Amino acid sequence: MFVCVYCSSSQRIDRKYADLASEVGTELARRGHGLVSGGAVVSCMGEVARAVRAGGGHTIGVIPQVLVDIEIADTDSDELIVTADMRERKGVMDARSDAFLVLPGGIGTLEELFEIWTSRVLGMHERPLVVLDPWGLYGPLRVLVDGMYEQGFLRPDAFDAIAWATTVDEALDLLERRVPHLRPTGEELGESSP
Fold first, then answer.
1. How far apart are CA 32 and CA 148, in angstroms?
2. What is the distance, to the nearest Å, from the Cα of residue 131 to the centroid of all Cα atoms in its chain?
3. Are 36 and 7 in contact (CB under 8 A)?
4. Residue 188: CA atoms inside 13 Å, Cβ hemisphere, count?
5. From the DSSP assignment, how many helices (H) and strands (E) are in the chain?
6. Are 64 and 39 in contact (CB under 8 A)?
7. What is its EC number (predicted)?
8. DSSP string for 82-128
């Protein structure tokens, strides 16, 4: 499957976040998955893409022209798609992805998380969404969302549309379990053909 990874492009963050992105990329490739990313070569975005390619995986970078112009495009991507703006970028990333994984990030990452989460709650797609948060960056967000639910702003099914993980293996296991076409066939389970 192609996993869309939303993550940071900030170069002011602790190195542990870039290391996490690299670990995600390595494990995606090891499991035979491809990557859809924001197409930047810097910080976590660059780390996850380089790690996927180093493991033999296919990478699709989607980046708006304005970011190409400031020379942060991941020109080593197997496919680099240049869009007119951020809205088109998100649409292309969505269309090319089988699942969504959110790593620690800033307001751009939050925007992407909320758009995919909202469209899932509204029944516009059934693809899995997992947030990988080893160090609790999104803890206050979870408290906020719980409060919104308690105040009646969210339906209970909002919580069914998202999963939370603290390790890379847990996150990818959750994604794989929730994608129907990745369920093992009878042959893969060791059953004989009729």
1. 38
2. 8
3. no
4. 4
5. 7, 7
6. no
7. 3.2.2.n1
8. EESSHHHHHHHHHHT-SEEEE-S--HHHHHHHHHHHHHHHTTS----
Task: Per residue of the chain (194 residues), give pLDDT as tens.
Answer: 999 999 999 999 999 999 999 999 999 999 999 999 999 999 999 999 999 999 999 999 999 999 999 989 999 999 999 999 999 999 999 999 999 999 999 999 999 999 999 999 999 999 999 999 999 999 999 999 999 999 999 999 999 999 999 999 999 999 999 876 554 444 444 444 33
DSSP track, 126-177: ---EEEE-TT-TTHHHHHHHHHHHHTTSS-GGGTTT-EEESSHHHHHHHHHH
SS3 of residue 15 by DSSP = helix
Which residues in 30-78 belong to E strands, given as ranges? 34-37, 59-64
Residues in the chain: 194
Which residues, at least 6 apart from 124, have a Cβ–Cβ distance to it below 8 Å? none
Q: Tell which residue, 12, 35, 17, has the closest CA to residue 132.
A: 17
Q: Quick one: tokens of 7? A: 């993550």
